[in-house]
Amino acid sequence: MPVQHPKVAVMLAAFNGMRWIEEQITSILNQAAVDVTVFVSVDPSTDGTEEWCAEFSACHPQVILLPDIGRFGGASRNFCRLIRDVPLDEYKFFAFSDQDDIWDIDKLQRATREIESRKVDGYSSNVTAFWADGRNCLIDKAQPQVDWDYLFEAAGPGCTYVMTRRLMTLLKESVLVNWEKLQQVSLHDWYCYAFTRSHGLGWFIDPLSSVLYRQHEHNQIGANTGLGSLIKRYKTIHDGWWFSQVQLIARLVGVEDDEFVRCWLPLERRHLLRLSFSAKHCRRRIRDKVFFFCICCVHAVIGKKAE
Questions:
Q1: Listed residue (69, 22, 193, 11) closest to 120, CA to CA
Q2: Which residues, in sequence order, are bridge partners of residue 162?
Q3: What's the farthest any 2 CA atoms get from each other in the chain?
Q4: CB 274 within 8 A of CB 263
Q5: Rounded CA gap, 198 and 20, in Å?
């Protein structure tokens, strides 16, 4: 009898992706030991991405282009559309994909194996960032999970996420119920990780890299390396974006009434000071725990809260 490989639906959100999307999709179709279908949702583009995807899907039955339903205005909204519209019944696992990376040939095989052996519902992994000039480095997100990290950071790049049908069914239900509020969430991967952990489901962060994570001028987030990246991230916190996203996600996943969350959720001076002393429970990496403590203290002193 032929070997039955697990069926995986890959959800790819695209926007002006002509430079690298073919290489990305090819690396997905070449995945070993899985039966893969790629669902593509294109935010209306100006570089011919829609036309190319339509032609490619016409020649490749494993690639399905979802109908145009107008502008999303961001990757997170596009991924919410994919969660809402991709059928679930035929597939055992579901994965997110960007439009500009290169997947290791065993990415999905390893992810599905780890999910089953560890009896978890969500998986992510480290990635190897690479630049056009030949530089590359490992992006390590696989530090041990802590009690509340999911309210303050994702489980790594969303392009590494693989989830079970059980988890995706719950996520779809949440997207349908909270569609309007979710339009305000900037990072779908952060929300999906927070939803998983807050609902008592397990998540494994793999220390091995599974993706070549392309770095270029149009990355929405990109690799967190160097002083420039640190300054950019501090600016998002200083401007109130990060704190407002923390509040929004905490409420969307239903933990706003938890005793720990209630003590800091208003994010005024005294709340931020209290939160600063919980840094070890809120971020995974030691450097990020220290940064978290300092940010909360600084904002408590200057009296700046989330807008």
A1: 193
A2: 95, 123
A3: 68
A4: yes
A5: 35
**What is the helix (H) or strand (E) element at residue 82, kind and residue range?**
helix 75-85
pLDDT in tens, the chain (307 residues): 566 899 999 999 999 999 999 999 999 999 999 999 999 999 999 999 999 999 999 999 999 999 999 999 999 999 999 999 999 999 999 999 999 999 999 999 999 999 999 999 999 999 999 999 999 999 999 999 999 999 999 999 999 999 999 999 999 999 999 999 999 999 999 999 999 999 999 999 999 999 999 997 665 555 555 555 556 556 666 578 999 999 999 999 999 999 999 999 999 999 999 999 999 999 999 999 999 999 999 989 886 554 4
**Nearest to 33, CA basis, from 8, 11, 61, 62:** 8
By the 10 Å C-beta count (0-12 exposed, 13-18 middle, 19+ buried), 265 is classed as: buried
Q: How far is it, in rounded angstroms, from Cα 53 to Cα 51?
A: 5
For the chain, list the domains and their CATH numbers: 7-214 (3.90.550.10), 226-302 (no CATH)
The residue written with tokens 């030991």 in the block is 33
- Are the beta carbons of 205 and 156 closer than 8 angstroms? yes
